[in-house]
Amino acid sequence: MTTTEAERVISTPATSKRAAKAPEKGLAFTHNGHRYKLDGLPVTGVTTLIGGGIPKPALVRWAPRVVAEWVTDPDNRPRLDELLKGDADAAIRELKELPTKVRDEAGIRGTAVHALAEALIHGGEVEAPEDIAPFVEGYAEFLDLWQITPLLTERPCANRTDWWAGTFDLFATSPLLAGGKPIQIDLKTSKGVYGETALQTAAYAKAEFYLDKDGNEQHIPEIAATYVAHVTAEGTALYELARDREQIEQHYQMFLAAAYIHKTAKLRDAIITEPLTPTEGTEAA
After folding, report:
1. pTM
2. Which of 17, 68, 197, 219 has CA 20 to 30 A from 97's CA?
3. What is the bridge-based pairing of β-strands 35-38 and 27-30?
């Protein structure tokens, strides 16, 4: 990617005023709000960059489908009748919030599965709630089937050069994958898995460091291949994302392109200002 004025803007994390101060060193993650700071400055997370740089037309169709399914479900008829008899604005607000509620519930489940999966892969005994137990049981079978040995799990990482941060799920080895070399596996509990996960795993593989449990920066192992494990109530399926370092690099370039689109949003907004007049150098029609 060639260096442009826009790239210089987005790749410089500090303003001149901030740059005059001695920067804090290190990566910090705040669970409340899921925010990162790198060397004392806010830094955008990998998933946010991908989400802001890659269109998601399926998401646009998903939200109204959630509302339509709820409205047509006979079990919801009493609540729907109550909404329609009441204040119209209140009814609209509640129906509009349905997709957010479904998304948040899925997020809570996914977080719980991730936490149990991390304990499980390190040999711990876990007690899973009834609704999550099938996910955990299938994941345990997956670990045994693929003979997964963990190297690192759920560690924050960052890249100062390209200015991003994130947290990877699993670096591991398997005698059945990539010749036993270090690999990366991202866990997904959503209904499906999608190609942009390859951009996410490529970014983590290209991180300049990760934080160990004592908060020290450590070098990222050289990742030979990347995968996504789709953890569902029916079991866990493994999908290959990048088979080698060359493909990881290709996917990372896609990630940088998506990050660029996200980071330049304010620059694009600033392109359109006031309308021109003929006295400002344009010719009258």
Report:
1. 0.80
2. 197
3. antiparallel
